[in-house]
Amino acid sequence: xxxxxxxxxxxxxxxxxxxxxxxxxxxxxxxxxxxxxxxxxxxxxxxxxxxxxxxxxxxxxxxxxxxxxxxxxxxxxxxxxxxxxxxxxxxxxxxxxxxxxxxxxxxxxxxxxxxxxxxxxxxxxxxxxxxxxxxxxxxxxxxxxxxxxxxxxxxxxxxxxxxxxxxxxxxxxxxxxxxxxxxxxxxxxxxxxxxxxxxxxxxxxxxxxxxxxxxxxxxxxxxxxxxxxxxxxxxxxxxxxxxxxxxxxxxxxxxxxxxxxxxxxxxxxxxxxxxxxxxxxxxxxxxxxxxxxxxxxxxxxxxxxxxxxxxxxxxxxxxxxxxxxxxxxxxxxxxxxxxxxxxxxxxxxxxxxxxxxxxxxxxxxxxxxxxxxxxxxxxxxxxxxxxxxxxxxxxxxxxxxxxxxxxxxxxxxxxxxxxxxxxxxxxxxxxxxxxxxxxxxxxxxxxxxxxxxxxxxxxxxxxxxxxxxxxxxxxxxxxxxxxxxxxxxxxxxxxxxxxxxxxxxxxxxxxxxxxxxxxxxxxxxxxxxxxxxxxxxxxxxxxxxxxxxxxxxxxxxxxxxxxxxxxxxxxxxxxxxxxxxxxxxxxxxxxxxxxxxxxxxxxxxxxxxxxxxxxxxxxxxxxxxxxxxxxxxxxxxxxxxxxxxxxxxxxxxxxxxxxxxxxxxxxxxxxxxxxxxxxxxxxxxxxxxxxxxxxxxxxxxxxxxxxxxxxxxxxxxxxxxxxxxxxxxxxxxxxxxxxxxxxxxxxxxxxxxxxxxxxxxxxxxxxxxxxxxxxxxxxxxxxxxxxxxxxxxxxxxxxxxxxxxxxxxxxxxxxxxxxxxxxxxxxxxxxxxxxxxxxxxxxxxxxxxxxxxxxxxxxxxxxxxxxxxxxxxxxxxxxxxxxxxxxxxxxxxxxxxxxxxxxxxxxxxxxxxxxxxxxxxxxxxxxxxxxxxxxxxxxxx
Length: 941
What we know:
Helix content is 30%, strand content 28%. With 941 residues, it is an alpha+beta fold. Among the domains are: 506-519 and 827-884, no CATH class; 538-825, Deoxyribonuclease I, Chain A (4-Layer Sandwich). Strand 29 and strand 30 (661-669) form a beta hairpin. Helix 15 crosses helix 22 (827-845).
């Protein structure tokens, strides 16, 4: 059984306490003193939340424990008919363990998934329903299911379709999982669209973000808060000695269309659809973890169902044409592409159905306008069952090019990643969609395991695979059928669930947190850090020669704090590979670079993260002493080869937080060829638009961005002239004709990015093993194909060069050194200040009654009586806060009215500079508002 919690009921005033691992969290309705008008009577109900000690919990018998069942966690708070209730999981069954390890005692699960069997809702207002909850009987259960205000929600959450885990992020596919699985990781990374109690936990998560670090960790370890998904989860174990394996299915029903989540309904104006299910198959053996994901959802067009006079007949009517459908259609698929990569549509049509044929044609029209691949299939369920090869023939290209996720447990490396997904739709037929997913799943497993020498697909494994898919189909069909039988009833239930709003009020913590923000300068400071970044197209070679000149160039004297290395063409991809990355190559380069850094440095470095897409490899190495300051490490990839279908070109991206500063690093290989400027521009836009991290974090959302790689931009001059200018080292003349430089000046590719002046010769193309530019029949024009760009005010580039002595490739490696200003939160000082504020304020509250306490804590003025006056009052931030009090900011500006411009006039800026004799200083930050005392804004031409 999962880690259980305890539940207590408090009397006078009524409250409910959830307790786990010694942490006690109290919930109580906010009450004003008698005779005081409650202003929020008709608004969002307010609940007081606070942590109480064990002594408080057990004193004077004020709280009594509910002992008649085992509680597995809370669902959150919900408001119904003016009352507030705490939802609690009161029954659960262990059904899954996607990952495990083999021990002398057999298979030992690494995590556990539980099915919700029962839930209860405890009132924060009265004890009217306590008798039914405290005395478990069939009669009382019936009364709870019919008379309790939350009866419909109790039935919903207890219908066998909800699942939770305390140590596994059920909302994300396995490939997106990091190593830690604590509550902080789950909250930061979970996909809210698949969480079916997110509306009940929103305020709790906000409250958690405001409490001090020590209390937050205490809360996280309590196991009180639980997140549930809806759909189907189960693991079947196939025990076969050394060939032991397990197959797990996790089907997640999305809440993106909220009240219509399971309806027979089309597209909404904001691009959302009903019936959206993400199904993942996870196969685990003693040596590797493999997973594959597919999507099924309603057809994303505007249509409605018309009941036919014919028995069992249902017709569809299209309500909007392609012109009015395209924009929300595009929004829907932009969202999918951002999360899953390439999307290929499979639309299943009932044979001889005119209405479905009309839908299919409109679907195809919108898909082609969006540039999506769509396959309309008119196979009946009987044909799909008897002749699955006919379907697989149509999907063969997608199956090979999307790949699959694969992780080597013993080596600790990823050697396959799924970079695309099938989106399957069938009008009014869940069974048919799942049948197709099962066929594809079996084929994927057989193809992928053919490339693995340590696992055989046995008949018992196939039997387990088919059985678990059958169960998945049964439960999902049952669920959607129940919803379609009585959609109005379920609509009312979903309205209660998704429309509920609660305001949590923790007076003391909120007061302290508000004032801590004003004292921020007392526990934050800035520090510098250096980043060494390098990019190298190695031409598919794992040369044994030294790379010291690149990683430790002569003009960089000190050891950097972090080394981030991007490589291109680390492998030559073979057509038809399912798992398209050679794990040996990745290991080779990781070991080679890390050993070199540790050999030269007197501080130990460790590999923080690495990832590979086809021939692009990105590696991140950091001083071990700084390990704890780097958090939220995530990666993503995007294919751009052959229109996004192949990984011979593309990008690998890294996102992380260093102290309180966010970084994004991208290594990319763009389209080749002198004339392919537009394709490179499209590659840039595709990568910039589609790279996504958790919480929909995009590249542009980071404080600092470094983008490097083989960009393949060329020089628009004749071969002879380029080579002549290289000999005379007139690089500035070459740079004027550089394609990337021209694109950046025009604001096309990489707008607002910065590149330090280039003072080294073009890095491509050389005769391998020599210092001579290309002498082959093609005689390619030398070019700076290998580049490093940056964006962000906190970055300052101080070195930019290439290692001309490394000769084994037809490229030369390029490097850059950056200095970064990091914002650091001193958690010790912050905790100390919190403690001072807490002790001081509790002393001031000690002699006050409840009304006076409320008035004190609602006062926005900072009360620091008795604290270190000199340390706080003299703080510039406190003085600034005091000066700004009672001053209102002007209304937000808009395109029509800008508050800093009077009378609606246009902005005019006059610069007293002669452009004939002066130019902008290229050594400065491109943002003119960033102060730079070292470099003037203009320099003589």
